[in-house]
Design goal:
This protein is α/β, with parallel strands linked by helices. It folds into two domains: about 210 residues, Alpha-beta prism (UDP-n-acetylglucosamine1-carboxyvinyl-transferase, Chain); about 200 residues, Enolpyruvate transferase domain (UDP-n-acetylglucosamine1-carboxyvinyl-transferase, Chain), CATH 3.65.10.
């Protein structure tokens, strides 16, 4: 695969030189979350959709390969893709899909194929086989799907057998492990809902609510309007219709690294592609940075950060910004006092166990770290230590720990090619913005 070859071109360890100052503008890659939702909805819709500024990275490549295996015609040229919708019915009645470690693709395709009247297999890398999917499978099977586990119960790989219709018009799904379960169910529901619609009730707390709001906004762009009352969503029986063209926003999670860089290395650093009009919850990371002392300015599609007041420790509920919160954990090393990031229990089931991984790597840099089931507390060292960071095949760990070089020491990142999952040119953009200092 091209993605594998690109990753092999990276050195085993990449050294980020000490950073004295950072300044400039970054054009963000397309949002991973929006890109993969747009690809699936365009594939399911009636008509052809032109997607522009689409993310070109591992997660979107596996989604495109999977959709092609399902018989969807997709022409890709850089950050543009032309998708010929299949009108809600995948042409391929059987397929063996390998989805790497792409959680959004795995969960949403599982739901989309549950009632596709075919035989399908869904699998991924070893870590994907450790990431839970049981709540989604349980909800789909309660509706009449026939999904079985090939290995450990509750985890991929999955085998999907033909199931022709829903057996009921209401279902409950847990919301406290991953919002991707609800997202997958909601996107699949219009095509198979009964005439009166499907009522989807969220059982317990719904985490990462901005991602669900994004899903609903994307569904509306493709002609399906979902209503919500409290913990219940009502999805009508409807066909998706192509909007003709859709421009993908820049990735707000990726913006977090450069906004943090603006705070840590004087700035200003501006990200373009997201701003105050964004549908992505991670733009709220700018508010967290502001609480820590950053100067923040916003436009309709840009945000700028620079160093302002002395950096302050914070106590912050990060349930709405789980991906960007990882960046905050590294920033917290530079603040005066003990920062506590709460509401991050979903980190445990991401590309790595991110709470354990972040705690381990922050301690290498000299930070004092405490951890709990859904929280992390960070107190910075008097001076950041030079360290070699293990990345756990997790793109976000590689990117956020590169910022530690703003502490005036080299930081060595193992397996830097893991950033290809969502931001292949991350290190090139970082190098372009920074002015190095002597260690």
């Amino acid at each position: 695969m091209a993605a594998d070859a690109a990753r092999q071109s990276w050195p085993p360890v990449l050294t980020v030189a000490p950073i004295a100052r950072a300044q400039g503008v970054v054009q963000l890659p397309g949002s991973k979350s929006i890109s993969n939702r747009a690809l699936l909805l365009a594939a399911l819709a009636e008509g052809e959709t032109l997607l522009t500024r689409l993310l070109d990275a591992d997660d979107t490549r596996v989604m495109i390969e999977a959709l092609r295996a399902l018989g969807v015609a997709i022409e890709r040229d850089g950050d543009r893709a032309r998708v010929a919708g299949c009108g809600g019915r995948f042409p391929a009645r059987s397929a063996d899909l390998f989805l790497g470690n792409a959680g959004t693709a795995t969960r949403s395709l599982t739901a989309a194929l549950a009632f596709a009247d075919g035989r399908y297999r869904i699998d991924g890398v070893a870590r994907m086989r450790e990431r839970p999917i049981g709540d989604l499978v349980e909800a789909l099977n309660a509706l009449g799907a026939r999904i079985a586990y090939e290995g450990a119960a509750g985890y991929p790989p999955l085998r999907i057998e033909p199931a022709h219709r829903l057996s009921r018009d209401e279902v409950a799904i847990r919301g406290n492990v991953s919002s991707q379960f609800l997202t997958g169910l909601l996107m699949a529901a219009p095509l198979v809902a009964p005439a009166r619609g499907l009522r989807v009730r969220v059982s317990g707390e719904l985490i990462s609510q901005p991602y669900v709001a994004m899903t609903l906004a994307m569904m509306k762009r493709f002609g399906v309007d979902v209503s919500r009352s409290g913990d219940t969503f009502v999805v009508p029986r409807a066909a998706y219709r192509s909007p003709g063209a859709l421009v993908v926003e820049g990735d707000a999670s990726s913006a977090s690294y450069f906004l943090a860089l603006g705070l840590l290395a004087q700035g200003p650093v501006r990200v373009e592609g997201v701003g105050r009009d964004s549908v992505q919850g991670d733009v709220a990371f700018a508010d967290l940075l502001q609480a820590m002392g950053a100067r923040i300015e916003r436009g309709a599609d840009w945000i700028e950060a620079s160093g302002g007041e002395a950096m302050r420790a914070v106590g912050y509920d990060c349930a709405a910004i789980p991906d960007a919160a990882m960046t905050a954990a590294v920033v917290a090393m530079f603040a005066s006092g003990r920062s506590v990031l709460r509401g991050i229990g979903s980190w445990r089931v991401k590309e790595s166990d991110r709470i354990a991984a972040m705690a381990t790597e922050l301690r290498k840099l000299g930070a004092t770290v405490e951890e709990g089931a859904d929280w992390l507390a960070v107190s910075g060292p008097t001076r950041v230590r030079e360290a070699t960071i293990d990345t756990y095949d997790d793109h976000r760990i590689a990117m956020c720990f590169a910022l530690a070089a703003a502490g005036g020491v080299p930081v060595h990142i193992r397996d830097p090619g893991c950033v290809s999952k969502t931001f292949p040119r991350f290190f090139a953009e970082l190098e372009r913005l920074v002015r190095p200092s002597a260690a």
